[in-house]
Design brief:
Blueprint: H1 2-37, E1 46-47, E2 50-51, E3 57-58, E4 64-69, E5 72-75, H2 79-84, H3 86-89, H4 100-103, H5 105-109, E6 126-129, H6 133-143, E7 148-154, E8 160-166, H7 178-181, H8 188-191, H9 201-211, E9 219-222, E10 225-228, E11 231-234, E12 240-243, H10 244-249, H11 253-274, E13 282-283, E14 286-287, H12 300-306, H13 317-328, E15 339-343, H14 364-382, E16 392-399, E17 407-414, E18 421-427, H15 437-447
Parallel strand pairs: 3-6
Antiparallel strand pairs: 1-2, 3-4, 4-5, 6-15, 7-8, 7-18, 9-12, 10-11, 13-14, 16-17, 17-18
Length: 452
């Protein structure tokens, strides 16, 4: 009897260990199963560390951006398309974290937690993007040899039609060394952070509309700059006496320096936070870099410079694209997205697109006033004829970044019903916004498809 009792105890201990082990395994499977599946040595998905099992990725027009044929993963046959859409599609080794090959590998490979990657077809799932590959090529060519980013989206539907980041590379001929790869894996639209320069004056303008009741009747003194507590804030021109609307149209530094100091740190910070600064935005679940505005301990002269988009202000281009969508949409943006659908080989949908309205960023009256002022910028300063047929509302920025050539910005949206597009363009170390980024924006918007 003692021998039987001993054996029973041993069996109970073994059963306990088995139960605990099974529980640990099931917990790990539930929480980390996708990581196990995605491990580069998994030959069901990868070959020599490169993704091979995945469905086709196409643009909005059905253009093949990536596909697997006979166990080999390949990109578009067109080199220009391969390079222009690289940061959206992603590489096969997972180095471009914002590309769908990395961010959406589960959907592309056909993985789910119940069946793993088992399917009778072994093909994975197909994905259609909202991007127009040809328009991305146009944007990349317009950026030329400069580093930068172009983003365009339909502010009425949320569809991203253009997302291009440079420099890029041909995924059929990836960089071999760290020096060759420097800066190539970064999607500057989603992950970049830049000194904004004068495009930040839109934030200061929004704050003034909300916090200064008589702002339309105010005038500001500009003597090619203004004195702030004994320190000089320079301006490119001597505007003498200038009102609020023309202060934005002429991008008068003196006007916005005085406004920032008058409203103070609290009001400026409140407006910046309402407009999405100091938090991260997401596109299709992909986390973007956060724009930052921090003036809590700033002196008045530093606060003045911050109101003009200098000091320590930093802007993420995707965030500003969403901001422009909010202005166009009476204060509440549609959320930009680029993954239109994911379908199984049988044609069944397995993805809910991340569209819909985002959080309100401005009061409707504030947004409409800002839109009116941005339209005035084009009519009175930039020249409507330079953007034919677009009914453009815009703001340029020339962001000083030390002793090198400044960054060039242009942001805004079209009021033309056939082209309801918001846009952002940043070109690194390229010079004045009106002479570089604005020309890039016009080239892309003129080529953008009309909406019927």
């Amino acid at each position: 009897m003692k021998q039987i009792g001993g054996r029973a105890i041993v069996m109970l201990i073994l059963a306990l260990f088995f139960t605990v082990g099974a529980a640990v395994f099931l917990f790990g499977f539930a929480t980390k199963g996708e990581n196990w599946t995605a491990y580069p040595t998994n030959r069901h998905i990868y070959k020599d560390g490169s993704l091979v099992r995945a469905g086709a990725v196409t643009d909005r027009n059905g253009e093949i951006l990536a596909q697997t044929v006979d166990g080999t993963r390949s990109f578009s046959e067109n080199k220009d398309i391969r390079k222009a859409t690289l940061h959206a599609v992603g590489d096969l080794e997972g180095k471009i974290s914002t590309g769908v090959h990395t961010a959406y590998w589960q959907q592309l490979a056909g993985y789910d937690r119940v069946n793993g990657i088992y399917s009778r077809s072994g093909q994975g799932n197909d994905m259609q993007l909202t991007l127009d590959a040809g328009l991305c090529v146009t944007a990349a060519k317009a950026l030329g040899s400069h580093a930068g980013a172009v983003g365009v989206y339909n502010y009425k539907t949320g569809e991203m039609i253009c997302m291009t980041s440079t420099p890029s590379y041909d995924p059929n001929n990836p960089p071999e060394t760290a020096d060759e790869a420097a800066g190539l894996y970064v999607n500057r639209l989603l992950s970049g952070k830049y000194t904004p320069g004068s495009i930040f004056k839109l934030v200061t303008a929004a704050a003034a509309i909300d916090h200064i009741s008589e702002i339309d009747s105010r005038t500001f003194t500009c003597k090619q700059g203004v004195d702030i507590d004994g320190e000089w804030v320079s301006c490119m021109h001597n505007h003498k006496e200038i009102d609020f609307v023309n202060g934005l149209a002429r991008s008068c530094n003196s006007t916005f320096a005085q406004l920032a100091v008058e409203m103070g740190r609290s009001s400026m910070t409140k407006t910046a936070n309402q407009l999405g600064f100091n938090k991260s935005f997401y596109m299709d679940g992909i986390k973007c870099a956060a724009s930052s505005y921090e003036v809590g301990s700033a002196r008045d002269i530093e606060l003045a410079w911050s109101g003009m988009g200098q000091y320590n202000d930093l802007v993420n281009p995707f965030h500003y694209l969403t901001f422009m969508g909010a202005v166009a949409n009476h204060g509440q943006p549609m959320k930009p997205y680029m993954v239109e659908s994911v379908t199984t080989p049988a044609g069944l949908p397995v993805h809910m697109k991340d569209d819909g309205k985002g959080s309100r960023m401005l009061k409707a009256a504030t947004a409409d006033k800002l839109a009116e002022m941005m339209r005035n910028n084009v009519l009175k300063n930039y020249g409507d004829s330079n953007f034919p047929g677009l009914q453009l509302c815009g703001k340029t920025g020339t962001a000083e970044v030390g002793d090198v050539t400044p960054h060039s910005w242009f942001v805004g949206f079209c009021q033309n019903e056939e082209k309801p597009y918001a846009f952002v363009v940043v070109v690194e170390n390229a010079g004045a916004g009106i002479s570089v980024a604005a020309r890039v924006a016009n080239t892309v918007l003129q080529a953008a498809p009309a909406v019927s």
